[in-house]
Specification:
421 residues, alpha/beta, Threonyl-tRNA Synthetase, Chain A, domain 2, Rossmann fold, 2 domains, 10-stranded mixed β-sheet, 4-stranded antiparallel β-sheet, binds adenosine-5'-triphosphate, binds magnesium ion, P-loop_NTPase, FtsK domain-containing protein, FtsK_dom
C-alpha cells in the first residue's frame, strides 16, 4: 500500500475525506448531514413543545384561560399555539379563544409576565388573520437603541413632525393642527427638553407657525432664535417675571381677537401665513409659577399678583385656544395640579407624554390604565416615554435624539424662519 492510499484509508475511517476522488466518502458525509438534520428537527420539535407547554402555564398563571367544568372536574383551556418559528426573534401563532382580543396579551402587566415566563424581555402581538395572532418574543427592549432626528423641517403645521418611534418600530408623527395641547412631564434629565427641541427644529421654518412662549431657563427659547421672526414673541430668564405674564396676556388678547373674527359658517380659524398657529411653549412652567409666586404681592386694590395673572392667561389659552389656532406645549417635572395651574388646566392636554417619573405621576397624567406600567417606567432611560391621547392608547415610545446643544442652535439658525424669506 502506498503512503497516499494509507492516508486515504485513515481519512475515510475518520470521515475527513472530501472531493470526488474519495470513493465512499460522499455516503458518510450524506449520513452525517442526515443525522444532523434529524437531530436539528428533533430539537426544534422539542423546543416547540416546551414553548407550548410554558406558554400554556403562563396563560394559566395570568388567567388568560377558560375553566371548563366537565364530569371529571375542571379542565383549563388556554389559547392554542400553531406554528413556532425559531427566529431570532422567536415567534409563534396563537388562536384567540372566544371573547379574547389581541391586546389581552399585552394589557397591563400581562405582556411582561408572559414574556418573562417565556424567557424573553418583552413581546409584540401582531394580528395575522381571523382569530389568529403572531406573538414575537423580543430578546431586548426594542426602545433600547436611540435614533437620531434628521435635520428636517416641515413646510406647514399641517404636516406631522416626528415625535418618536414605537416598540413596533413605527415612526410616530404629530401635526400641530391636530386639536390638542401637549403636556410633557419627566424628572431631571429624562428628555423633556430634547423632545421639545426636536419638535421646534422641525416647525421653525413653517410659514404658518409662530413659536412663542416663556422659558425661564433661556435655553430652549431665546438666544438660539435670534434673528428669526419667532424671537420677538418669546420671553426668557427670571430677571423680569412680569414680562412673562405680559406676553401670555398679549397672547390671550390675540386669541380673543381671533375668536371674535372667525368667519361665518366656520367654527375655528384655519391657520395660514397671516394668521399662523401660535405654538405657545411653556418650558419649566412650574418653575415660572414658583418664581412669580415668590414676588412681593401687590397691595390690595393695586393689581393682580403676577402668579395669578400667569395662571389665568394659561388657563384661558388651554381651554379656548384650540379654535383660535393656539397650541400649548407645557413642560414640567411633574403634572401635579398645583404645579401646572390647577386640575382643570391639566385636563386640557389632549396629548400627554411622560418621561421617567415616579409611578404616581404616571397615573396622574395617563389615568389608572397606566398604573401597572408605573414601577418599570420609574427607571426609564432618557428619551423613553409613555404617550397617550388623541385617540392613541397609552404606548411606550423612544423620542429621537437631536444631538448636543450646539446642534440645536445650528438647526434653528439653519431652519428658523426669517422676515426676509
Ligand atoms: N431621546 C433621547 N435619546 C438619547 N438620549 C437622550 C434623549 N433625550 C435626552 N437624552 C439624554 O438625557 C440628557 C437630558 O435630557 P434633557 O435635557 O432633555 O432632560 P430634561 O428632562 O429636559 O431635564 P431637566 O428637567 O433637567 O431640564 C440629554 O443631554 C441627553 O444626554
Ligand atoms: Mg429640560
Amino acid at each position: 500500500m502506498t503512503a497516499l492510499e494509507h492516508t486515504r484509508r485513515l481519512e475515510h475511517r475518520s470521515g475527513r475525506t472530501r472531493g470526488p476522488g474519495a470513493h465512499g466518502s460522499g455516503l458518510f458525509a450524506r449520513l452525517r448531514a442526515e443525522c444532523a438534520r434529524r437531530e436539528y428537527e428533533a430539537s426544534v420539535l422539542a423546543f416547540a413543545a416546551s414553548l407550548k407547554a410554558v406558554f400554556r402555564e403562563a396563560c394559566t398563571g395570568i388567567a388568560l384561560c377558560q375553566y371548563v367544568h366537565v364530569a371529571a372536574g375542571v379542565t383549563i383551556r388556554t389559547p392554542r399555539v400553531g406554528e413556532v418559528r425559531l427566529g431570532p426573534p422567536t415567534s409563534f401563532t396563537v388562536e384567540l379563544m372566544a371573547g379574547q382580543e389581541p391586546a389581552d396579551f399585552t394589557k397591563g402587566e400581562n405582556g411582561a409576565r408572559l414574556a418573562h415566563t417565556l424567557g424573553a424581555h418583552g413581546l409584540r402581538v401582531e394580528p395575522v388573520a381571523g382569530r389568529w395572532v403572531r406573538i414575537h418574543l423580543l430578546d431586548h427592549d426594542p426602545l433600547r437603541d436611540g435614533f437620531t432626528l434628521p435635520s428636517l423641517s416641515v413646510a406647514s403645521g399641517i404636516e406631522p413632525v416626528i415625535i418618536g418611534r414605537t416598540e413596533d418600530g413605527l415612526t410616530l408623527g404629530h401635526a400641530l393642527t391636530e386639536p390638542g395641547h401637549l403636556g410633557v412631564q419627566g424628572q431631571n434629565g429624562s428628555g423633556k427638553t430634547q423632545l421639545a427641541e426636536g419638535i421646534l427644529t422641525q416647525l421653525a421654518a413653517a410659514p404658518d407657525v409662530l413659536i412663542t412662549g416663556s422659558d425661564i431657563t433661556g435655553l430652549l427659547l431665546g438666544r438660539p432664535w435670534d434673528g428669526t421672526v419667532h424671537r420677538p414673541h418669546q420671553v426668557t430668564g427670571t430677571q423680569d417675571i412680569a414680562a412673562h405674564a405680559a406676553l401670555l396676556e398679549d397672547l390671550v388678547a390675540e386669541m380673543d381677537r381671533r375668536l371674535a373674527t372667525i368667519p361665518p359658517r366656520q367654527d375655528k380659524i384655519a391657520p395660514d401665513a397671516v394668521t399662523p398657529t401660535k405654538f405657545v411653549v411653556l418650558e419649566e412652567f412650574p418653575g415660572l409659577l414658583r418664581a412669580a409666586d415668590g414676588l412681593p404681592r401687590p397691595k390690595r386694590g393695586e393689581g393682580v399678583p403676577v402668579g395669578d395673572r400667569i395662571r389665568t392667561a394659561v388657563l384661558r389659552l388651554l381651554s379656548e385656544g384650540r379654535k383660535a389656532a393656539f397650541r400649548v406645549l407645557m413642560l414640567a417635572q411633574r403634572f401635579e395640579a398645583t404645579a401646572v395651574g390647577g386640575g382643570y388646566a391639566r385636563d386640557q392636554f389632549a396629548l400627554r407624554i411622560s418621561f421617567r417619573v415616579p409611578a404616581d405621576s404616571l397615573e396622574m397624567l395617563h389615568g389608572v390604565d397606566a398604573r401597572p406600567l408605573g414601577q418599570e417606567h420609574a427607571n426609564a432611560a432618557p428619551g423613553v416615554a409613555y404617550l397617550s391621547g388623541l385617540g392613541r392608547d397609552c404606548q411606550r415610545i423612544r423620542v429621537p435624539y437631536l444631538g448636543d446643544y450646539g446642534e440645536y442652535c445650528d438647526r434653528i439658525a439653519a431652519h428658523g424662519r426669517r422676515a426676509h424669506r
